[in-house]
Design goal:
The complex is a heterodimer of chains A (226) and B (413).
Chain A lengths: L1 E12 L2 E13 L4 E5 L6 H8 L7 E6 L2 E2 L5 H11 E4 L11 H10 L5 H14 L15 H13 L5 E5 L7 H16 L3 E5 L3 H4 L4 E6 L2 E7 L3
Parallel strand pairs in A: 3-8, 3-9, 6-7, 7-8
Antiparallel strand pairs in A: 1-2, 1-4, 4-5, 9-10
Helix pairs in contact in A: 3-4, 3-5, 4-5, 5-6
Chain B lengths: L3 H12 L2 H37 L5 E6 L17 E2 H10 L3 E7 L7 E4 L2 E4 L1 E5 L3 H4 L3 E5 L4 H6 L3 E5 H7 L10 E4 L2 E10 L10 E5 H7 L5 E2 L1 E6 L4 H19 L9 E5 H44 L1 H10 L3 H37 L14 H28 L2 H6 L2
Parallel strand pairs in B: 6-11, 8-10
Antiparallel strand pairs in B: 1-13, 1-14, 2-12, 3-13, 4-5, 4-9, 7-10, 8-11, 9-10
Classes of the chains: A alpha/beta (226), B alpha+beta (413).
Chain lengths: 226, 413
């Protein structure tokens, strides 16, 4: 599903060049539940951005679903993001002036699904997250856990192949964190590849495969079957 | 472009961002409103002043006799100059560029006029046929005095529409009937009206000068002569006046430097002065108008810049979810076009409405302000200019925001 080979990425800020990813090789099969760990500055967020086609890379190659993701036009990249990928962020990134159901439905808007239909589908996804009664609430009326579940529903609605989660439990308490992880596991069991970036050990322990990133390359890998 | 879903999306964005929508709209509406009020006020002022001149031909010159003030060839100052029919004929013979000419004889004594059992006082003007065009007294019924009336000294009269109103019962036509001027019956052959501020101009009775001189024992006396000349430059106009004066001086034995022997009133000078003044006012109004529009453009541009900045994170989220750069740019653009054109329209309507209210509330005989109508095409062009510049001002930052990588946009707090 995901294939990275010799991936390099550096950021240039003024005169300083910050080499973040230094020839990273990684293969993730379809249906895997993977966590990416590493200390801050190790490059784990950069890796996720590259995987999510949110950011470009300098060298090597990245194949998503056997398609090379290089030199994509903005339009093409947007289409891939829309069809193949779902994002879940630490700070939820819900649109503040849209209510829960509208937030969830937004990816379908960019697929050209009409309003009535996409709101219906969105309501269905919210229901699966146990948030049907909260459909008309604005993001600032929801708790952190509820917001994250809305964001997960939004990531799910376009039926992506891969869900990328950047510190999805970073802003949640441990009880809600567990609930969110249960959700990810459930999503994963339906065949969707889930990649979670985290620095919390107890979160990563709930995934099938843990990838440690150190200084821009894979430090160690650990596969568990629990 | 016609995409109901897209518009629903835009409307929901507008509804949820009322303040910024209001601010953008307000700056546009205010700019257009001010522009219209400004243009309307300028136009009203111009129309008002202009209407003071409409009652007489713009190119008319009026000559009337005075009293000498300089001794000339042994004649002491203080001699009264007297015009006669000969002066009238001499002017015609001496000047090739006359368009119209009429002389006038003033009837002394009361100017009471009676018609059947009604009577009233009206200005009695004894004239040649050309006075129709010098005074702009055009018949609305019947005809004006003609040359046969002059030749045959017919007792005919042309009366103003307000004279008719004062003397006749409703629905009764005085044409063919007789009015009595100082006891002498004159047949009414026409009714005229004038586009004038002053009712006096429409309360006149015109009769042929030849008839008046005969009936009211005026001999060949003329009290004033009015001319209309073809379009002239300032220099030509001055030369023409000099020539007229010289001609009268040599025929009436007075010094041509004597500026009290005859009086020449040249409407051309007055009109030119006002035209120049109005050119100035119009330019002034345009400078302020353009300034207002520029202020509006700057206001809209500023707000659009802030709007895009404020929405950077939202744009990042939308891009992560799968929005193409074009969909981001076009939705911001359409939103700004919608707001600016709607607000521009509101400003347009309010401005025109205010002008209408003002127009309705100023007295009809106002000498200073009249018909403050606005050139709608100018107002619409200004609105379009604001909409376009608002869009450009929105497009540039929107394009930039749509181009930056979603990561950077997402990081923006």
């Amino acid at each position: 599903m995901i294939e990275l080979k010799g991936l390099h990425k550096s950021y240039i800020t003024g005169n300083n060049k910050l080499h973040v990813l230094k020839g990273l090789d990684l293969t993730i099969e379809q249906g895997e539940l993977v966590s990416v760990m590493g200390s801050s500055g190790s490059g784990k967020s950069t890796l996720l951005n590259v995987l999510g086609i949110l950011d470009s890379y300098d060298e090597g190659f990245y194949k998503l679903n056997n398609t090379l993701m290089d030199n994509l036009s903005e339009k093409k990249a947007a289409q891939y993001r829309n069809n193949m990928l779902g994002f879940v962020f630490q700070s939820f990134n819900l649109i503040s002036f849209k209510n829960a159901v509208e937030n969830v439905a937004l990816p379908l808007y960019y697929q050209g699904v009409n309003r009535k239909k996409r709101n219906m589908i969105a309501l269905d996804y919210l229901d699966r997250m146990g948030l049907k009664e909260w459909a008309d609430h604005m993001p600032n009326e929801l708790s952190g856990g509820q917001k994250q579940r809305v964001a997960i529903a939004r990531a799910m609605i376009s039926k992506p192949k891969v869900i990328l989660a950047d510190e999805p439990t970073g802003a949640l308490d441990s009880k809600t964190s567990l609930e969110v992880m249960d959700l990810f596991r459930e999503i994963n069991s339906s065949g969707i590849t889930v990649i979670i970036v985290t620095h919390e050990k107890d979160i990563s322990e709930q995934t099938d495969r843990i990838i440690h990133i150190k200084d821009g390359i894979i430090g160690s890998e650990f596969t568990s079957k629990n | 472009m016609i995409d109901i879903d897209k518009w629903q999306e835009i409307f929901s964005t507008i509804r949820k961002n009322k303040l910024r929508t209001f601010l953008t709209g307000f700056s546009v509406a205010w700019g257009i409103f001010m522009l219209i009020v400004l243009l309307g006020a300028g136009k009203g002022l111009e129309n008002g002043i202009h209407s003071n001149f409409d009652s007489d031909a713009a190119n008319s010159i009026w000559i009337s006799p005075g009293q000498t003030s300089i001794s000339y060839k042994g004649i002491k100052p203080g001699k009264y100059v007297k015009f006669t029919n000969k002066d009238y004929e001499r002017i015609i013979n001496e000047n090739k560029n006359l368009e119209r000419i009429s002389s006038r004889y003033n009837i002394r004594g009361n100017d009471q006029i009676s018609y059947k059992n009604e009577y009233g006082s009206f200005g009695i003007n004894t004239v040649h046929p050309d006075m129709e065009f010098i005074e702009n007294s055009f018949p609305i019924k019947g005809r004006f005095i003609n040359s046969i009336d002059i030749e045959k000294q017919r007792k005919v009269a042309v009366i103003g529409d307000l004279v008719e109103e004062a003397l006749c019962k409703k629905g009764e036509s005085p044409i063919g009937e007789y009015i009595k001027i100082r006891g002498v019956p004159f047949k009414v052959v026409g009714i005229y009206s004038e586009n004038s501020n002053s009712d006096e101009e429409r309360r006149r009775v015109y009769i042929p000068i030849s008839t008046a001189q005969m009936v009211f024992s005026g001999g060949n006396t003329v009290n004033s002569i009015a001319l209309a000349v073809s379009e002239m430059t300032d220099d030509e106009s001055e030369q023409f006046e000099e020539k007229l004066k010289a001609s009268f001086a040599s025929n009436h034995n007075f010094d041509k430097e004597d500026d009290r022997a005859i009086y020449i009133r040249n409407n051309l000078d007055n009109i030119k002065e006002f035209r120049n003044a109005f050119q100035g006012i119009r330019m002034f109004i345009w400078i302020i108008g353009v300034g207002t529009i520029i202020a509006g453009i700057v206001g809209v541009s500023n707000i659009m810049l802030i709007v895009v900045k404020e929405r950077t994170k939202e744009i990042g989220i939308r891009k992560a979810i799968g929005a193409t750069p074009w969909s981001v740019v076009s939705s911001i653009l359409q939103e700004s076009i919608l707001i600016t054109s709607f607000a521009g329209y509101i400003g347009l309507v309010l401005g025109v409405a205010l002008m209408e209210i003002i127009a309705m509330n100023i007295p009809a005989d106002s000498m200073m302000f009249k018909n403050p109508d606005v050139d709608i095409s100018v107002a619409i062009s200004a609105t379009i200019l604001l909409v376009v510049s608002g869009s450009i001002a929105g497009y540039i930052p929107a394009r930039r925001a749509a181009k930056i990588k979603p990561v950077i946009a997402l990081r923006d707090e």
